[in-house]
Amino acid sequence: MNILNVVQSQYLAALKMLKEAIVKCPPSVWDAPQDKDKFWYKAQHALYWAHRNLQATDKHFVPWKGHRKPDGRVPISKEDLLEYLAFIEKRVADRNTAADFAEPRSQGLRFDRLEVAIASIRHIQQHTGELYERLGSREGTRLSWTEYVHRKQT
């Protein structure tokens, strides 16, 4: 078993499902006034932490060029979130060795890198599931399950 390929595949599968939710979300759900946590906010939150968890340590975190701290009042556009998602997909796909995910605990992290990767994937899926439920119950939107995504070999 190649840990690198498995972790990359599951990261990319989780991100693909989140992407589908973002793409299929209508404006009426994107920033629905009745939602405490807006659709766009949950999607941004999942992406931000996916990005942050891909860093070696918190000390080395460099925010994405389009990052702005959401204030809950001004929605982030689908286009911006899809660009951020593509940026994160590239970071995942650019991992070249299993050590990128399985190295020992770095200073400032509570878990080994592999455990951080698995927790990050679970976090993406938790929020993606919430967004899928919102789209399904309000709009009847049918969304897909992605079992795995194989990265392109270079």
Care to describe what's here?
The structure is a single chain. The protein has helices at residues 3-24, 27-30, 39-53, 78-93, 99-102, 113-139. It is an all-alpha fold and 154 residues long. The protein has a single domain, classed as Four Helix Bundle (Hemerythrin (Met), subunit A) (Up-down Bundle). Helix 1 (3-24) packs parallel to helix 6. The longest helix is centred in the C-terminal third of the chain and has 27 residues, at 113-139. The model has no long low-confidence stretch (mean pLDDT 85).
CATH topology: Four Helix Bundle (Hemerythrin (Met), subunit A)
Helix segment count?
6
Beta-strand portion reads under 5%
User: Which class do the helix and strand fractions yield?
Assistant: mainly alpha
Any idea what the CATH architecture is? Up-down Bundle
Looking at this structure, what is the CATH superfamily?
dinb family like domain
Q: Could you state the oligomeric state of the chains shown? A: single chain
Could you tell me the radius of gyration in angstroms? Answer: 16 Å
Instruction: Catalogue the unreliable spans.
Output: none
Quick one: how many beta strands? 0
What is the mean pLDDT?
A: 85
Order of helices and strands: HHHHHH
Briefly characterize the structure.
The protein is built from 6 helices and no strands. It has helices at 3-24, 27-30, 39-53, 78-93, 99-102, 113-139. The mean pLDDT is 85.
